[in-house]
């Protein structure tokens, strides 16, 4: 990795354990033949194992760091995958894979933008059939957190509405250069069969964000701003805190709010 400096501003921590990179690449083994986007390949540690499993023509790399792009172009074997230099958060799915075909996303995600990355995956849910990779352990645990656990949050519910989310394994901080101050976690999200929540998707997102914005209060307090003036429904879930609700309970709550607004 000589010649490429990990940049703190980009949240770069280069993985040095090849066995872990191989395990991460294997999370997409069920999706061979589909296009794959790797976010933030850095020096290509994960890329080399993806190339063992996927044709170079099926792999696209999105990298914001020009130093890393130069390294990849100089060191990846021919034929090389396509490399897009730029900020993934500013890209559209059509910029990466034109058309409406399905694809997968993988990466050792920069800690400082991992949540933003997954919100973007959520927006692309009609095309992204699987998303896996490594991020800060606490964030990874949050994405996979079931109802009733303290880790559950906004992204837990929003992602689990559309994806089956698995926390796969923990990675020590000592297998990176430079070592981060926290452990990492590897997750995999597989698109479930849901195509329509049965409620307005924008309102559903608003309900989830509003309730978790007051996560220490019961929903009776947090949903007041979403109800018509003077409305005082006596729904049973209003006595719960947001982390206690399942995805289906959030859908049911959204439906009731929707109906109350129309009445």
Number of domains: 2
- The CATH class of the largest domain: Alpha Beta
> What is the succession of H and E elements?
EHEHEHEHEHEHHEEEHHH
Query: What is the helix tally?
Result: 10
Question: Which stretches are poorly predicted, pLDDT < 50 over at least 5 residues?
Answer: none
Strand composition percent: 15-25%
Oligomer: single chain
User: Approximately how much helix is present in the residues?
Assistant: 25-40%
User: Nearest-angstrom radius of gyration?
Assistant: 20 Å
Q: Which features does this protein show?
A:
263 residues, alpha/beta, Rossmann fold, Helicase, Ruva Protein, domain 3, 2 domains, 9 strands, elongated
Describe the protein's architecture and organization.
This protein is 33% helix and 19% strand. By secondary structure, the chain is an alpha/beta fold. It folds into 2 domains: 8-191, Vaccinia Virus protein VP39 (Rossmann fold); 201-262, Helicase, Ruva Protein, domain 3, CATH 1.10.8. Helix 1 (18-25) crosses helix 2 and helix 8 packs across helix 10. The radius of gyration is 20 Å and the shape is elongated. The model has no long low-confidence stretch (mean pLDDT 93).
